[in-house]
């Protein structure tokens, strides 16, 4: 694994992958979904705020995961069911055209 030089916010990851932000957040909420070190928690100095980000390797891995899940409608439905995503998120991502 290469050294991490930068991380991307989940909002930016959703833009890059053209995916629903809440779907990305649901996937990343379980750190077992991506390789160790792909998900990074960034803590801010003031107010104990933090946000989650992905390394470049994490973005690539996530993109491959989503592409594999979309290989068929049945695989996609199983993927979404296994995630336990909110029904509104599932409905929203299912309205997108097949890629």
Secondary-structure element order, as H and E?
Answer: EHHEEHHH
Structural class: alpha+beta
Summarize the amount of helix as a percent range.
40-55%
The count of β-strands is 3
Strand order of the largest sheet: 1-3-2
> How many helices?
5
| Strand-residue proportion | 5-15%
Average residue-wise pLDDT = 89
For the biggest sheet, the summary is:
3 strands, antiparallel
What do you see in this structure?
- It is a single chain.
- By secondary structure, this protein is α+β, with helices and mostly antiparallel strands.
- The protein has five helices and three strands.
- The protein has a three-stranded antiparallel beta sheet with strand order 1-3-2.
- The chain starts with 6 loop residues before the first strand and ends with a helix.
In brief:
The protein has 99 residues and is of the alpha+beta class. The chain is 52% helix and 14% strand.
Q: What's the helix and strand layout?
A:
Layout (H helix, E strand, L loop, with lengths): L6 E3 H8 L3 H9 L9 E5 L6 E6 H14 L3 H11 L3 H9 L4
Antiparallel strand pairs: 1-3, 2-3
């Amino acid at each position: 694994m290469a050294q991490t030089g930068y991380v991307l916010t989940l909002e930016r990851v959703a833009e890059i992958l053209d995916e629903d932000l809440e779907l990305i957040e649901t996937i990343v909420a379980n750190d077992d979904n991506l390789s160790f070190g792909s998900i990074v928690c960034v803590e801010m100095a003031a107010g104990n705020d933090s946000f989650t980000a992905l390394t470049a390797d994490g973005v690539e891995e996530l993109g491959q995961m989503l592409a594999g899940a979309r290989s068929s409608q049945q695989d996609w439905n199983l993927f979404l069911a296994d995630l336990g995503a909110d029904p509104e998120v599932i409905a929203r991502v299912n309205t997108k055209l097949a890629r």
